[in-house]
Amino acid sequence: MEIIRMPVELLNEIFMKLRADGLLNLLPVALVSRHFYRIVTPLTYQTIYIDISGCTYPHPHVEDHTPTKRPLSTLISRLSAGPAVLALVRNIHVFGRDGVHPGALELLIGWLPKLRQLSSFSWNCDGSFPPSLLTSLGQHWPKAHLDMRTSFSKCDIKKDWKVLRLAPNMLRSLHVCMPNYPYDRVGKEARVAKSKLLWALRSCPGLHSLTTYDPNVYRNNRGLGASEPWHDLKPEFLLPQLAELTIADRTFEVDDLLKWGAKGGWTKLIKITLWDDRLLYGFQGCEQSLRSISLLHTKAENENALVSICSRTIRLTELKIKTEESRLPFSALMICGPSLETLAIHPHRDALDNWINMQDVPLCLLQAIQRLCPGLTNLALNLRWPPDNPASLQT
């Protein structure tokens, strides 16, 4: 069949794959014929990326994916040239690591009402989410899916986020940095941040994904401990039924998770990512929905927690582990192995410099993975092999 005669749906899939490699692949295609131009043009403007810190937008027309910078005002002027172009924009991704460039917010806020159909808005910048931008999104695009990365350090959430009360289903993904560390100075700041998080969760019943994160946990190799202080954030029935949950700090403890699960809070949970594997004991009620488990720092003595949740889960398809010893969790694999499609086991970053503590895994045990996981399509192992020469083994 000639490509020009292929169904439009099939051509769309082909061009979307090309677009994932950079817009350079689409520009020549648009010049082939009017038919291709009509298909390619919507894909070109469908997703817009904006660097808010430099007031520029990346223009991925380079084969090595190194974006060239163009002024944000140029982008907005081009997209505002006519209603036909504005109608093509569906998704906006804003990122930046050096603060917000003066004037960038005003340009962005003034441009949002001109769009015709915004489906999603993603904010991946340091600091708090600008309340003026959130208000504009809530007023003009309350049905758009909002993916937000923020902190609560300088946020008056009841005032700045009040628009979420009017658009409760807008916030779909929340990634928040919680001030939990250092342990000897956890006090009012952490309690205030946790109360703000609780207010945000209560106001957003449509929340799909939640990440609570403390970067100091990773740098200091500290997990949860029974003697460490806990605060007043307790899951309640008003909280949304999450599909994805990442806990990389001390926001929740096992008892909190159990209470949430007892009220049906985990019935839609598909993916969990945890810093401390002991928290696995807290997930009850997700046996039908859970498909993916990622553990960021496991220990051999806590393997029973993984075995426990695997024995209750109906169909686990993905298991990713970072461990001090790079042990293969065969007790868990004997239970969930038949349904696994992806298995990844790597040493924790602190263990990379201490190869003497890595467990030597005989080749016969590696061969046993195939027997335990017959449906495995994606396997990644990083082990000490051979014993006297640390190396990376990937299959």
Annotate the secondary structure layout:
Layout: H1 8-20, H2 26-30, H3 34-45, E1 47-51, E2 56-59, E3 68-71, H4 72-79, H5 83-86, E4 91-96, H6 104-111, E5 120-125, H7 131-140, E6 145-151, H8 157-160, H9 163-166, E7 171-177, H10 188-203, E8 209-213, H11 215-220, E9 244-248, H12 254-262, E10 271-274, E11 292-298, H13 303-312, E12 318-323, H14 330-336, E13 342-347, H15 363-372, E14 378-381
Parallel strand pairs: 1-4, 4-5, 5-6, 6-7, 7-8, 8-9, 9-10, 10-11, 11-12, 12-13, 13-14
Antiparallel strand pairs: 2-3
Helix pairs in contact: 1-3, 13-14
Domain F-box: 1-52
InterPro entries: F-box_dom (IPR001810)
Protein name: F-box domain-containing protein
- So what's the overall shape? globular
Largest sheet: 12 strands, parallel
**What share of the residues lie within helices?**
25-40%
Distance between the termini: 38 Å
SSE pattern, N- to C-terminal:
HHHEEEHHEHEHEHHEHEHEHEEHEHEHE
| SS-based class | alpha/beta
Strand order of the largest sheet: 1-4-5-6-7-8-9-10-11-12-13-14
Beta-strand content bin? 15-25%
Query: Using DSSP, what is the number of strands?
Result: 14
- Give average pLDDT, whole number: 76
Roughly how many Å is the radius of gyration? 24 Å
The total count of helices amounts to 15
What ranges have pLDDT less than 50 throughout 5 or more consecutive residues?
59-68, 181-186, 218-232, 385-395
Organism: Letharia columbiana
Protein name: F-box domain-containing protein
Domain F-box: 1-52
